[in-house]
Each structure stands twice: as C-alpha cells, then as structure tokens.
Design a protein that fits this description.
With 382 residues, the protein is an alpha+beta fold. It folds into two domains: 112 residues, no CATH class; 217 residues, 2-enoyl-CoA Hydratase, Chain A, domain 1 (Alpha-Beta Complex), CATH 3.90.226. Helix content is 32%, strand content 24%. The strands form two sheets. Strands 1, 2, 3, 4, 8, 9, 10, 11, 14 and 15 form a ten-stranded antiparallel β-sheet that branches. β14 and β15 form a beta hairpin. It is elongated, with a radius of gyration of 23 Å.
C-alpha cells in the first residue's frame, strides 16, 4: 500500500495522501493502526477541533473550493456545530459542509458509521433492472466463462482489501479467472464492470495488466491548480505518481491487441469507474451499457482520531487522451436494462457486445479479402 503521511504534533493529526484507490474500510483500518498512539480529545474541544480541521482542509484542497462562498460556508457550518458536545454531535455540521461543497463522494467515517451529503438518488426500476438488482445483493467474485468459440467473458466485481497482501490476492484472482479462457487464443473478450461499485482500483488493473501497453492510463486532475497525478503501466508495475501501486508477480500472455467490449452501468462506480477510464483510449475497445454511477472523483483523507476519518474529493479523473470525466463514464453504445447474470446468453448487453466483436472481426476479414483481391487482380492484369 503506497501513501504519504505526516503527523502534526500540535493537533495529533495524520494527514494522508490517499486517493480512492483503497476502499474506505481498508483505509480506515490502516490509518487507525498509524494513529493508535495519538491522543484523542473528547467533548466540545474535539468537536470544535474537528470543524476547524475540516474547514481548513476543504478550503485548501476540496475539488469544489473555487466555486463556493467560503464566508457563507464557514459561518453556516460553525453555527450548526455551536452546540456540539462530542464528535458524534458535530456530524450534522459535517454533513452540511459536504452539502454546501456539493461533494457527494466525500464522507466522515466515525466509529464505523458514515456521514455525508445525502444526495437524492433515483431508484432503479425494479422491472427494468431486476437482474442487476438481484446480482448486486450477492457476494460476487471474479468470474470467467466462454460465451462462444473464440469469445470470452470476464466479470470484475468490487473489492475490499483489509489486510496486507489482499491487493495481490485480488489481482491474482482476476488473472486466474482470465487464464481459464486461454486468452491468447481468444478473438475477443467481454469485460464486465456492471457489478463493480468500487474498492481498490489497482488490483483490478493488475488483474488485467496484460491488456495494456506501457505508458499512461489516466490522470487524477486538480482543476484549480491544473496539476495532475498520473497512473499507468511501467514495465511490470502499475504506478500511481511516484508510487508503485501494484507489481506483477507472474508471466501473462500479451493481450494488448485483443478486442475488448467493456460493460458498464449505474452500479459501476468509484474505482470501478477508474478502471473503466483506464480502458478508454485503448485500441480495439468498445463500451456498451449505460452511464456509470457518477463517482469519478478521488478522495484525500485526514485521520482525525483513531475512530474518525475525514474524506474529501480533491481531484477528478481524466483518461490517457486528456478527456475529463466530470459526471460519469458513458458507453459508446447504449443498452438499457436487459441484465441477466444467470443466463448470459440472454443478457442484452452481452449480446450487443458479441455483435460488435463479431462485426469487428468481419470488417477485418473484409479488408484482408479486399487487399488479397486487389493483389490477384493486379497480378493477372500484368
């Protein structure tokens, strides 16, 4: 796990440079270990210090810091927190801060409970999304199956690494699933991210590292400072800025030229969206499905106490070509509903993906035949 931390001796805070590449639970467990020795104040002093810390951090780092009236935010948040006698009773003020920032990805995790801006979310139509809603209630693991001769399917769900070594285990599970398809022999692959609301993005990328070439896959962009932190592939590593986020430990077949259809939908979010963005701009790649969940921002965190972490959106993602995803990731071909994870041969998105893969193959074959035909014609003409 790669991160930078420093302890503020005056406030007993650990400030972490962490993007949403790690799940909230994994972050919290790791950060709590780091702060086990730090003092934890209680009562009104802790509440006031929490508000001071959050406001200061937001004003300097929030993704939305240039678009808010900071006097109004400061006055309103402090007024709401005026009667707080503990960290827990300061949570309404923290929720107000996220609301005024319009930060729907950030949150406070206090004693294993989340506090955030409660954004009204449209409910998925149970008739249209019956298959998706049923499957997301299950425990999902990386899963691969042959659909037809030469065409494979790989599902990469969310994850939640909580222990050292979990990232390697998650990536290996994806690699193992893909290898059952003998991918070096495939004509095309359907890569399903519909069951991926997030977690740690880098073991997801590590699991399919052999579909990428060397170089940049995406950038975490701060639109205020116009700076960014790049992620991508360098030799046998996935890098995140100057850090190594994942190291490949086995030899995999080269799949850089493999035709891939990426399936996305409303449950594709956070790190699932970052994985999708990493595939944007890749040659021979087509996106099918529906717009993703809309968490294409990255969070930075402050470990306020052993039981309290503050997470705020500080940047937005861009793909390798410089396209910034402010709202969500959109498909190249829209297919609404029709998800059927129990019978993939009846899944409308899978069917659309197969049609594109086969059409792509036929287009290539047509070009070859055309070139061969011209050569034969030119030869006989001479």
């Amino acid at each position: 796990m790669a991160f930078n931390a420093f302890l503020n001796p005056d406030q007993n805070l650990i400030v972490m440079k962490i993007l949403f590449r790690y799940s909230a639970l994994a972050l919290f467990l790791s950060l709590s270990l780091l702060t086990a020795g730090a003092q934890q104040n209680s009562g009104a002093d802790s509440a006031a210090r929490l508000i001071d810390t959050a406001l200061s951090f937001a004003q300097k780092n929030s993704l939305y810091r240039a678009s808010v009236n900071w006097k109004a935010v400061d006055d309103s948040v402090r007024k709401t927190a005026a009667g707080a006698t503990s960290i827990r009773t300061a949570m309404p003020a923290m929720k107000l801060l996220y609301t005024m920032l319009k930060d729907h990805h950030g949150f406070v995790l206090h004693q294993n409970k989340y506090y955030k801006w409660s954004v009204p979310q449209p409910k998925l139509d149970t008739a249209v999304y019956r298959g998706l809603l049923k499957q997301i209630r299950q425990k999902n693991n990386a899963f691969a199956v042959m659909l037809e001769d030469g065409y494979g399917y790989l599902s990469i769900p969310d994850n939640n690494p909580t222990q050292w070594g979990d990232n390697d285990r998650i990536a290996a599970g994806i690699q193992d699933a893909l290898n059952t398809l003998h991918p070096e022999k495939l004509k095309g692959l359907i890569l399903d991210l519909r069951l991926n609301p997030g977690g740690s993005m880098f073991p997801m990328l590590g699991g399919i590292m052999n579909v990428f070439g060397q170089g940049e896959l995406g950038v975490f962009v701060d639109p205020v400072t116009k700076t960014g932190e790049h992620w991508g592939v360098r030799e046998h590593r996935i890098y995140d800025g100057a850090d190594t986020a994942y190291t490949l430990k086995r030899k995999l077949p080269d799949l850089q030229k493999l035709k891939i259809v990426v399936l996305i939908g409303p449950n594709t979010a956070s790190s699932g969206e970052a994985t999708a963005i990493s595939l944007k701009g890749r040659k021979n790649t087509w996106f099918v499905g529906e717009p993703s969940g809309g968490y294409t921002t990255s969070n930075q965190s402050i470990q306020f106490s052993p039981t309290t972490g503050i997470f705020m959106a500080v940047s937005v993602e861009s793909d390798r070509n410089g396209t910034i995803y402010l709202d969500n990731v959109k498909p190249d071909q829209t297919v609404v509903g029709g998800d059927n994870f129990e019978q993939l041969n009846q899944d409308l998105k899978v069917a659309a993906g197969l049609r594109w893969l086969k059409k792509s193959d036929q287009s290539w074959l047509h070009k070859v035949r055309s070139v061969v035909g011209q050569l034969v014609f030119n030869t006989s003409d001479k």
